[in-house]
Amino acid sequence: MRRGLRFVPVAALAAVVAELAVFVGVGRAVGFGSAVLLVFAASLLGLVLLRREGMRAWRGFRAAAQAGAPPGPQVTDGLVGLLGALLLAVPGLVSGVVGLLLLVPPVRRLAGAGVRRATERRVSSMVAGDLFGPRRVRVRRGDAAPSAQPEPQEAAPTVVDGGRAIEGEIVER
Hints:
extended; mainly alpha; 2 strands
């Protein structure tokens, strides 16, 4: 977990540089006032959607909990929706486009599946089962894969002769 955190400052700096570059490019294309108005409108839309997505996520979680169903799918869908609305609310054109994409249903389902896989890898199988229900496992038919371990060899028989163990072949007399 700690290894991935060392890239956060670099990623944040890259995001700020990308936002500024896109803003300058859009500002040159449509005018500075129009670019500021576009950023302001996207942020306002994000704030409205943030409230709506939050309420939607909470209702889905409550409905799943009351029905006794695993709440994982509703939680992941809600998280992706909230992330999309939050990115749309943050002032910036690149973050607004990414946030808007996360609110489109096919992209939302794809991102939700990624969140589910990442969650299942990071939590125990018991917790993953409680969150998402029984796991689906793909089984491929065909020949079994060759084992990486060598076949166990038979050990030489041990014969006890008067309290002493003799290893090796048994020779009949």
